[in-house]
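Entry 12.
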Amino acid sequence: MATLTYNEIRERKCIVFNGEPYEVVSSHVFRKQQRKPVNATKLRHLVTGKVIENSFAASDKAEEADLGSRSVIYIYSNKGEHWFHEKDDKSKRFTLESGLVADKLNFIKPGDKVDLLTFGERVTGLRLPIKVELKVKEAAPAIKGNTAQGGSKKVVLETGYEVQVPMFVNENDILLINTETGEYVERTNKK
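Predicted 3D structure (tokens):
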């Protein structure tokens, strides 16, 4: 594990803080008047999702979290249980809690390959591709002159996720969706 100085603790880095894995959500290095510089950070716990604030002084250091990753296949969700299996062995099935995967399920469908992230033996969540292709399941028809809301409408994707899209998007179109922001990127020509 690499040791990070106070000013190397930046957004999207994963660190070990008080023996627990955290992702740095935001960081801001500043100096108050004649004092030494500090790095004011917001840290998100990788297992519980709880966000805390901490300031690292110039003399502070943090260990970079050693996160493991392996490919798994999403099978299905039923009654709050989310089932996956190992990429190469369908008999090795396991379930994950809703708290770890709930926001990611909007962007994956049964049979999709995702990365399972671990810290030691503990599962910390899933890593998805930044952009995924999803099919439009329900889309209201575009009405001429209906641009009061900026020329956009809501559609329902095959996973049940609702997203704001331009008026020209129709049912059965394949859309590229950003999994980090949950927003529409573009319509692809595949059908």
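Annotation: The first strand starts at residue 3 and ends at 5. The longest helix spans residues 98-101.
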